[in-house]
Write a structure and sequence with these properties.
The complex is a heterodimer.
Chain A: E1 5-11, H1 20-31, E2 36-40, E3 45-47, H2 51-56, E4 64-70, H3 74-86
Antiparallel strand pairs in A: 1-4, 2-3, 2-4
Helix pairs in contact in A: 1-3
Chain B: H1 21-34, H2 43-55, E1 60-62, E2 65-66, E3 69-71, E4 79-89, E5 99-107, H3 112-126, H4 129-136, H5 141-154
Parallel strand pairs in B: 2-5, 3-5
Antiparallel strand pairs in B: 1-2, 4-5
The chains are: A alpha+beta, B alpha/beta.
Chain lengths: 95, 158
């Protein structure tokens, strides 16, 4: 079965960049879904379900990423992950 | 960023004595004091700040690795060290596994990019399961330092 890949663009809004805590939240959210989740930055493509992979992006504030989801729940997964970015991972300054 | 850019060679420990989360953090911070990388008078404040960060969510990122860290105004560049606990320590890590390999980072508050690049380097290198394994079973600080140097000079492993 070849599932369609859906994608959406997100921007890292956290001032500290995508550091350990948001990377953990992101990978956790991605793992809730059956679909394959990948994050694409300028020159890298990583597994969104792995915190090590997400940290490898070293995505600073303002970085644009494309989230790609492939699988039966791709749409919901993208919405949930997009929501995390929109809420800035509930990050407050000095966190 | 390379390991040698932030790991204080004199502060590397291959057999930590502590068997608690706060204990290992304190021991590593003390090793940075002994290596002259952080001021003795700031030790308590740094340990407290790192523990506060751990309260927000464990930095035990899986594979038996943790990256306890904080921003602290007393440092003017990113400083860090590496330690191994042969027995492993309960760090409430994300995958529930005990942690044996620790990277402790203290960064100046105004340099979030350096902190990110250090995390990037650590996570990139640790994806190599074999590298992770040899680090955890290193026989002494010198061996750890050599392994880090080797990783640095190989550049992109994967």
């Amino acid at each position: 079965m070849s599932a369609e890949t859906l994608s959406r663009e997100v921007v890292v809004g956290i001032q500290q960049g995508l550091h350990a805590r948001p990377a953990d939240l992101l990978a956790r959210e991605a793992r809730r879904w059956q679909s394959r989740i990948e994050l694409v930055a300028e020159s890298q493509r990583v597994d969104g379900k792995s915190i090590l992979d997400v940290l490898m992006l070293a995505a600073e504030a303002g970085t644009r990423l494309v989230v790609e989801a492939t699988g039966p729940d791709a749409q919901q997964a993208l919405e949930a992950i997009g929501h995390l970015f929109e809420r800035n991972f509930n990050e407050h300054e000095n966190a | 960023m390379k390991f040698s850019d932030f790991v204080a060679a004199d502060a590397i420990r291959s057999t930590v004595v502590a068997n608690t989360k706060e204990g290992v953090i304190r021991e590593m911070a003390q090793s940075l004091v002994d290596a002259g990388k952080i001021a003795a008078g700031e030790l308590e404040s740094i340990v407290k700040a790192i523990m506060k960060r751990e309260d927000l969510g464990s930095t035990g990122i899986g594979r038996g690795v943790a990256v306890p860290h904080t921003k602290h105004p007393s440092v003017n560049r990113l400083v860090g060290t590496v330690a191994v606990s042969p027995e492993g320590i309960n760090f409430e890590s994300l995958d529930g596994e005990p942690v044996r390999l620790f990277f402790l980072l203290v960064s100046p508050p105004d340099r979030p990019g350096d902190h990110l690049r250090a995390l990037e380097n650590i996570s990139r290198q640790l994806r190599d399961e074999a590298f992770c394994k040899v680090l955890k079973s290193a026989k002494g600080p010198t061996e750890i330092q050599q392994l880090l140097e080797e990783a640095d000079s190989h550049g992109m492993v994967s």
